[in-house]
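To: structure desk
From: M.T.
Subject: fold request, one chain
Message: Could you run this one when you get a chance? Sequence is below, nothing fancy, just the single chain.
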Amino acid sequence: MTRWLEEVRQNGNPDMTIMLIGNKCDLDARRQVSFEEGERFAKDNNLIFMETSAKTSFNVEEAFLETSKLIFANIDKGVYDLSSEKSGIRVGNESYQVSSGD
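Reply: Done. Structure tokens follow.
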């Protein structure tokens, strides 16, 4: 499990927020990683950890909200240089036009 994390950290922004998702928590009988194992790995590697279920939508929205809150807190603290595209964050409102198909 650590190889993907090493690759992300090697190729990404060193200040990026990373979330480890344990999916399909509704299938407890087929579980391959315990909640405790996932939580411990996340804690040891400074990751956010949540379990979700796409089938029941358990924690799906919360996963996005939690990540967004941490990114916003880092923006507020000045961790990211928002003037640089390397931050991966674009600030501002953009107007998107949706075609009605007519």
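Reply (cont.): Residues 80 and 87 are 6 Å apart (CA to CA). Let me know if you need anything else for the meeting.
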